Amino acid sequence: MTTNKFGGGKNAKNNNNKAWQPRFSAPPPPQNRPANPPQQNVRVPAWENDVDFDPYACQICKKRSHMALDCFHLYDYNHQGRHLPQQLAAMVAHSNSLHEDNTWLIDSGANQHVTGDLSNLHVVEPFNRGDKVAVGNGNGLHISHTGKFTLHAPGSTLQLKSLLHCPQAAINLLFINKFYLDNACFFVLTSSHFYVKDTLTG
């Protein structure tokens, strides 16, 4: 009687009318396998190391009943967030050293054009109403003058209407939505630069 390695032969009897099934043995375990597999270089998000991070909590007040856009404290400048006012002021002071006086920063969150340099205003009028411009650290910037400013670009001029002069302002802010409306234009942003295009001619 000849047998094969699976345990049955040509003439083997089939006990109890069961179908023939080969018997396989598991492969032997590897001899030199390390106890713990090597760690792969996987990037871990910074918030995973933050023991206080809660992905379901509001980023402003840290409560779980709502998200940041619906937070009651969103526009409350007296509310203390993660960064203290001194830290915010230090960030602004540091950023001021990186910009020249004629640099204009595009701001989509502002609601007015602001400059700290009175020479940027062409048609100057004193502002005596006592209003202030609210800034991120909770302080208000005193408005001393209003006026207009003209940006000269190759082939065209662009107007900043209702420009506010706040002597304490460390940077020049260009409110993007107002700029669009005043100049009938739009911005095209790329990874390295931007274009200002006329809405009529493109």
Could you explain the architecture of this structure?
Residues 1-42 are annotated as: Disordered. Residues 104-179 form the Retrovirus-related Pol polyprotein from transposon TNT 1-94-like beta-barrel domain. Residues 1-10 have a biased composition (Gly residues). The chain is mostly beta strands and 202 residues long. The chain has 2 helices and 10 strands, in the order αββββββββαββ.
Summarize the structure.
This protein has 202 residues and is mostly beta strands. The protein is 10% helix and 23% strand.
Bulk shape: extended
Please tally the β strands and state the result. Answer: 10
Order of helices and strands: HEEEEEEEEHEE
Report the average pLDDT across residues.
71
Assembly type: single chain
How many distinct helices?
A: 2
Sheet-strand content, in percent, reads: 15-25%
Indicate the structural class: mainly beta
The residue fraction in helices comes out at under 10%
Cross-sheet strand order for the largest sheet: 2-7-6-3
Distance separating the two termini: 92 Å
Round the Cα radius of gyration to an integer and report it.
Answer: 34 Å
Query: Largest beta sheet, briefly?
Result: 4 strands, mixed
Organism: Carya illinoinensis (Pecan)
Protein name: Retrovirus-related Pol polyprotein from transposon TNT 1-94-like beta-barrel domain-containing protein
InterPro entries: PolX-like_BBD
